[in-house]
UniProtKB/TrEMBL annotation:
SMART domains: Ami_3
MurNAc-LAA domain boundaries: 241-396
Name of this protein: N-acetylmuramoyl-L-alanine amidase
Pfam families: Amidase_3, AMIN
Top-level class of the enzyme under EC nomenclature: hydrolase
InterPro entries in alphabetical order: AMIN_dom, MurNAc-LAA_cat, N-acetylmuramoyl_amidase_3
Native organism taxonomy: Bacteria, Pseudomonadati, Pseudomonadota, Alphaproteobacteria, Rhodobacterales
Entry keywords, A to Z: Hydrolase, Signal
Signal sequence coordinates: 1-18
Amino acid sequence: MRWLFALLLVWLALPALADDGARSALATVDLAGSSLTAEGRDRGRPRPMELRLTISQPVPYRVYFLDGPPRLVVDFREIDFSGTRAGDLPGRELVPALRWGRFRSGWSRLVMELPGPYALRTAVQRPAEGGAGGALVKLRIEPVDATEFVTRGNALSALWDLPKPAEVTPLPPRRTGRRPLRVAIDPGHGGHDPGAQVGAIYEAAVLLGFARELTEILTRAGFEVVATRKDDSFIPLERRMTIARTAQADLFISLHADALPAGEAAGLSIYVWNPQADDRATRELATRHDRADLLAGLDLSGTDDQIADVLMDLARTETHPRSQAFAKFAVSELNRAGIGMHSRPVRGAAFSVLKSPDIPSVLIELGFLTDAGDRANLFDPDWRARTAQALARAISLWAQDDAARAALSRR
């Protein structure tokens, strides 16, 4: 199997080894309008830094970190770095090393070695400053403790970077009951993306409040909780999954309370991964959920190449039924608690936070801010408490059922 996997990776690499071919209309870098700066005085410790790249036209990009040594990686689709030297970037001396160039067909890469562990605080792409044409990509990073250094060390990123087969991180084993069940709670939106807005009500704030209440109930019930965000901060969609994966979460629950035109949607609903979902409301929600990363210039659509798609689908043959099983337990317990739900409570959607092939994942629309009844529920302490308690019971029942099924499969 490993030998076959190696052949697949080699086959995937072939397009990147082909002749560059014609390159037209690619973005270029304006070094005069680009820089790397650091805040505060140099006292021998890592400082907050800001990378600014002025480019001739907007391009999709994605940002992540790697370790050994700590590095910031920015993949662009696509910048023509030929004719510019990374060493000429103003402020280059602030980091141990900086390099850039084309690394595979359709993609360019910037790698900046860092003086220690960092976290991404803002990622913005906007029109270039000073009346210049093109766009400005601005990334702000801040030093963090090693325990908070989130790297892209998962199977998906390993496939993207084409390592040797032995270096591909295997899927984590099913939980065997030796530790409490670990649940990742993901309040949607945050920071510069407030989510749906109705008057003075912001989805991001509503979700953060409910997530805290749910976390308290789950903790009291004996579960371990991992929060993808604990304050009003922007967390890229892909990083939310990485946080859950790094913490070895057993279940991922994303929370939303979105907006659709009046009369189109009302009631709580639960979504599982389904890239073929094609009803209009679901497509609109998927666009809204992913818009924060798209506005920041982060490209999610190109993350999964052909081979990665196949391998992740194989992984989902185990995790997807587990996601569906949790959704069914949740619907049952919510019904028992008298929580009003959508007429079709379990649905499929291609939400990016449900992509993870190795963690059972669901997205729960607690309701829609555009519906007066749902809006009232979201501000009703009794409704929130009953909903959180029903979800806690569903998690407990699902965990017992999941462990029993895992034991049967081992036999």
